[in-house]
């Protein structure tokens, strides 16, 4: 059953990451090529700085600024 599973049993082991200074188009390409819905955002030392999701892009594209 689902309650008996561990994260490792269902996680995606293929991953990619982007940097905060990368262009959004790079993130979109990674989302499309890999069917990802989230990307870790890392600094030059590969330290996690945040997560970019497809939802983040939708909100940015379709909501008025400063909401």
Name the descriptors:
about 20% strand, about 35% helix, alpha+beta, about 70 residues, single chain, 3 helices, globular
Task: Describe what you observe in this structure.
The chain is α+β, with helices and mostly antiparallel strands and 67 residues long. It is built from 3 helices and 3 strands. The protein has a 3-stranded mixed beta sheet with strand order 1-2-3. β2 and β3 form a beta hairpin. It is globular. 4% of the residues are buried. The model has no long low-confidence stretch (mean pLDDT 91).
How is this structure best summarized?
The chain is α+β, with helices and mostly antiparallel strands. The chain has three helices and three strands; from the N terminus they run H-E-H-E-E-H. The chain has helices spanning 7-10, 24-34, 54-62, and strands at 18-19, 38-42, 48-53.
Strand order of the largest sheet: 1-2-3
Give the proportion of residues in helices.
Answer: 25-40%
Q: Distance between termini?
A: 41 Å
Backbone CA Rg: 14 Å
User: How many strands, what sense, and barrel or not for the largest sheet?
Assistant: 3 strands, mixed
State the low-pLDDT regions, or none: none
Q: Based on helices, strands and strand pairing, what is the structural class?
A: alpha+beta
Shape verdict: globular
How do the SSEs run, as a string of H and E? HEHEEH
């Amino acid at each position: 059953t689902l309650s008996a599973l561990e994260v490792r049993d269902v996680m995606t082991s293929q991953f990619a990451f982007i940097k905060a200074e990368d262009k959004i188009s790079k993130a979109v390409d990674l989302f499309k090529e890999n069917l990802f819905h989230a990307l870790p955002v890392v600094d030059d030392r590969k330290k996690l700085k945040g997560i970019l999701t497809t939802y983040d892009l939708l909100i940015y594209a379709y909501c008025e600024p400063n909401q």
